[in-house]
Amino acid sequence: MSGPAKANDLLGQIPKAQGLPPVHLWNPAFCGDIDMRIARDGTWYYLGTPIGRKPMVRLFSTILKRENGQWYLVTPVEKVGIQVDDAPFVAVLLEVEGQGEQQRLHFTDNCENRFTAGPEHPMRVSTHPETAEPAPYVRVRGEFEALIHRNVFYQLVELAVPCEVAGQPGLGVWSDGVMFPLGVL
């Protein structure tokens, strides 16, 4: 089976329940790769075409699983491989509550997950070795991260306060009692 029938078949296998499905408990046989990709900008593609139905993307995002560096969509009876260019989510909205060390940064990603940066949802910034361009991330759930959209990162920079980063002066932001470095000055 391939094409749209394969994607619809996967959707039909997902048990209906409140909250996220327990994909960590599902270990079905690997059924091969499908032509599905999550681009760096958070767009989901199927057979090279963007998936325009947000509820479908949201549903697929709930059955993501990562094993040994590989990405899968998993149901209780089937596991198929997909491609993820960077992170499976993109943080597209930032809401700020409070100030200083009491500040809380609430993120919403492109799949409507809402979470607060802090001990359970840490932020990190990696730097491209050649261009020195920052790539900021925040943990969504488990080991899954969201790339922080450039506009949202600019908002974080506006909120930044001086801090120490690896023994050097830098900038960072507070959220939920944790200082998250954004970069060295």
What does this structure look like?
The protein is mainly beta and 185 residues long. The chain has two domains: 4-84, duf1285 like fold, CATH 3.10.540.10; 89-184, Roll (duf1285 protein fold). Helix content is 15%, strand content 46%. It has helices at 4-12, 54-61, 150-159, and strands at 30-38, 44-46, 49-50, 64-67, 70-74, 79-84, 89-97, 104-109, 114-116, 123-127, 134-141, 144-148, 161-165, 168-175, 178-184. The strands form three sheets. The chain has a six-stranded mixed sheet. It has a six-stranded mixed sheet with strand order 9-8-7-12-11-10. A hairpin with a 4-residue loop joins β8 (104-109) and β9 (114-116). The mean pLDDT is 92.
- Beta-strand content: over 45%
Secondary-structure-based class equals: mainly beta
C-alpha Rg (nearest Å): 18 Å
Number of contiguous helices: 3
Order of helices and strands: HEEEHEEEEEEEEEHEEE
* Coarse shape: elongated
**Major sheet: order of its strands?**
3-2-1-6-5-4
Distance between the termini: 54 Å
Number of domains: 2
How would you characterize the largest beta sheet? 6 strands, mixed
What is the strand tally?
15
Highest CATH level, the class of the largest domain: Mainly Beta
Q: Can you identify the CATH superfamily of the largest domain?
A: duf1285 protein
- Are there runs of 5+ residues with pLDDT below 50, and where? none
Query: How is the quaternary structure best described?
Result: single chain
CATH topology of the largest domain: duf1285 protein fold
Helix content range: 10-25%
How much is the average pLDDT? 92
Query: Mind telling me which CATH architecture of the largest domain this is?
Result: Roll
